[in-house]
Amino acid sequence: MKRKLFCETNETCYKISVAKEILLRNFRDLFSREKIARARSDAELPVIVKSHASILLRKLHGVDMQLQENKKTNIALASVKINGIIIHPGETFSFWRMIGNPSEKRGYKVGLVISRKGFLNGPGGGLCQLANMIHWLVLNSPLTVTELHHHSDALFPDDRRRVPFGTGTSVAYNYVDYRFKNTTDQDVQILVWCEEGELCGELRCQKEFPLRYRLVEENHHFQKEQGKYYRISQVYKIAIERASGREVWKKLVLDNHSEVMYDYSLIPEDQIKDSLDGD
Known about the structure:
The chain is about 20% helix and about 35% strand. By secondary structure, it is of the alpha+beta class.
């Protein structure tokens, strides 16, 4: 029998573990030499590197739509904290250092929170979508991701997905952060806002980068292994020379092998490949 972790013993132990992780993060940040971006500007940098929009309200199997409505409020509040942030060369963007604690005292509502224990309801739930937006913009740029926590499982079936599977990130205040560093020679800026039922985002800079980028998902399918279904695919990042249109390189950035956590009947039959179980 697998021994339980301390945080899995009961609710009190879980809260103690979370409080410990928050304190450890604060301690590390206090003595870190990492320069965190703080400057914001209402003036938009002139060049759009990447823009994107994602639907705020999704019908997730088995999830109360009120939690989705609350997510809209949470994302709107957090977006205001981030919108217009300037990241100078050498600086690091930190999701939680910009937003702060998403507590009910600060106006955040109870939303869907994903943890080791599964799905929970908690203040600030749903902010993963905002972190996912920022990560997608960064993936389509030469910026360097320095902290990323992938969702290890396929939690929900697709609902109007616009990006390759697995290109999101988990966040939990404040010890599970999303961070990237501006390793270029110019300022970059993030704009995020809510409009007509969508979360909108732009990554901007001062002048065009010599390369542009494209993310592609290949070999996507579902496969049964030892009685469980897994979602499998590979995501590649392609760099294209802006002046000539020539492909410069293609790199594997994500090799998905994610256990399906939702009802297997919702898996599209035409996307299921031969089972490794011999079925």
